[in-house]
Amino acid sequence: MEEYLTIPEVVAELRVPRSTFYYWRQLGRGPKALKLPNGDVRIRRRDLDSWLCDLEECVR
């Protein structure tokens, strides 16, 4: 089953302030996110992992 993370979960994992996460999103440099009909934002685990891997230039 696919895991969807909340913004508080993502910023806790990355150890960055929430404002930094929103700044990255504003610049288009954050992980892909889904905006739900109620306005909440979720990040798929696979999208976060892929984004982190791209930052590290991982070999897949």
Short key terms for the protein model shown above:
50% helix, 3-stranded antiparallel beta sheet
How is the secondary structure organized here?
Blueprint: E1 4-5, H1 7-14, H2 18-27, E2 34-35, E3 41-44, H3 45-56
Antiparallel strand pairs: 1-3, 2-3
Describe this structure as you would to a colleague:
By secondary structure, the chain is an alpha+beta fold. The protein has one domain (4-56). Helices cover 50% and strands 13% of the residues. It is built from 3 helices and 3 strands. The chain has helices at residues 7-14, 18-27, 45-56; strands at 4-5, 34-35, 41-44. It has a 3-stranded antiparallel β-sheet. Strand 2 and strand 3 (41-44) form a beta hairpin. The protein is globular. 8% of the residues are buried. The mean pLDDT is 93.
